[in-house]
Amino acid sequence: MTRKALVTGGAGFVGSHLVDLLVDRNWEVLVVDDLSSGKLDNLAAARRRGKVSVHVTGIGAPELAEVAGKYGPEVVFHLAAQVKVPVSVADPLRDAETNVLGTLNVLESARRSGARKIVFASSGGAVYGPRTRLPATERAGRTPPTPYGISKKIVEDYFRWYAENHSLDYVLLAPSNIYGPRQDAGAEGGVVAIFIEQMLADARPTVYGDGNQTRDFVYVADVVDAFARAADAGSGVFLNVASGVETSVVELYDLVARLVGYPVRPDFTAPRAGDVPRSVLDPSRAKAVLGWEPWTPLDEGLEATVAWFRRPA
Ligand code: UDP
Predict the structure, then answer these.
(1) Which domains does the chain carry?
(2) Residue to mutate, 89, 195, 249, ligand 1, most ligand atoms under 8 Å from C-beta
(3) I need a labelling partner for 288 at 20 to 30 A (CA). Which of 23, 40, 259, 266 fits?
């Protein structure tokens, strides 16, 4: 039987991979995306292969409840967001408009549409406090150091409220640093996309600080697999979605440089304001709850990502 999903942010980097996977698994999909950073191009393959429709609007739009109501999704995947931490610091109100009020509008629309469950993209990198013991487990206190992290955290209470009062079940997924094909160095600013794009263009990449800062890089196909699994497993839980492996920025640089065949050393400059020195999450709860694991090793994921960036125009 065909199942119906509504995916907010479905034309974006992560959202479009989720749409691909849902189509593979025979779901019908309605994408809601304002195309501010998402692209219809990202959905071209999914639209050829499956039943995918697109409604172009922001998640704060009053019409969302009606759109969702007409479609009648079984599950809502909520990935649309204001994703830039510096924007949230410069303009917390704008961040909250999308990430708090927009999320509330999605929750209300999901409830009114009769959806059974909502799966939400939180942030593993932004919700834990700077003094969290690493690797961070879900038991650690969530004291986000930025307005972006705060907006991702404070909406958790709304998910709980909708579950308790409107039987809308939920899973909150907190990915670490996601990378992979379709990541946009400009729109999302991930270091993997930036390094690959610059090395391929023969523009010397910059490393902020000494490059010994670490991140937990998780491959996009693995991440969306966790989202798809959450449609049928987990209830009222918050789960890290991460590799559990710490990789330094210089290690990453070397891996990408080898794959691209780029011989030049990075340009080391001053540390970036607000950068945390280390970030790594423990993914074992997602394994226990969803049967999920980070299957793709970094070198393999990077190889596929470099191949995508090399695609003919
Ligand atoms: N980074 C870098 N050069 C760049 C972009 C990023 O050295 O051109 C570093 C950045 O300082 C950080 C890491 O790469 O330590 C990851 O940055 P990103 O913005 O991808 O993720 P976040 O800092 O949000 O975890």
Answers:
(1) 3-178+220-243+281-294 (3.40.50.720)
(2) 249
(3) 23
